[in-house]
Amino acid sequence: MSDYLLAAGQWRGQNRGAKLDSPPKMLMTAASHSLSVLALADAADLKALRAEYDPAPTPDIPPPGQSPAPSDLPPGPLKSPPTGPAPSR
Fold first, then answer.
1. How many CB atoms neighbour CB 34 within 10 A?
2. 17 in any annotated domain
3. Cα angle vertex 56, ends 54, 58, to 5°?
4. Contact, 42 vs 29, CB < 8 A?
5. I need a surface site. Which of 44, 52, 57, 68 has the fewest CB within 10 A?
6. Is 67 a domain residue?
7. CA angle (73 as vertex; 67, 75 as ends), nearest 5
8. 59-68 long-range Cβ contacts below 8 angstroms, 24+ apart
């Protein structure tokens, strides 16, 4: 039944001249609403899955008055490289 409703929701101009209260138009409207509901449910499901399995990283901000924790990276260079022309060969 759901396959039929989805196919009807993707109505491609069939029964274009049908009256608004006719069964074909009513079915098309119901199927179109079903597509909207399925799209909302799909978006909600995707959001719930991302929240569970791919949460946003939490920033490591130290409380005020506390210094940041040292990183595991080695310290950067102390001097910047020379800015003049490159030595020739």
1. 15
2. yes
3. 135
4. no
5. 57
6. no
7. 80
8. none
User: Which pair of tokens denotes residue 21?
Assistant: 């209260």
The conformation of residue 60, written as its DSSP 8-state character, comes to: -
Domain, as residue range, for 35: 2-53
Q: With 0-12 CB in 10 A as exposed, 13-18 as middle and 19+ as buried, what is 24?
A: middle
Structure tokens at 79: 């001097």
The dihedral sign for the CA sequence 19, 21, 27, 31: positive
Residue 42, in any domain of the structure: yes
**pLDDT tens per residue across span 3-48:** 766 666 666 666 667 788 888 778 878 877 888 888 899 999 999 9
Asked if residue 34 is part of any domain, the answer here is yes
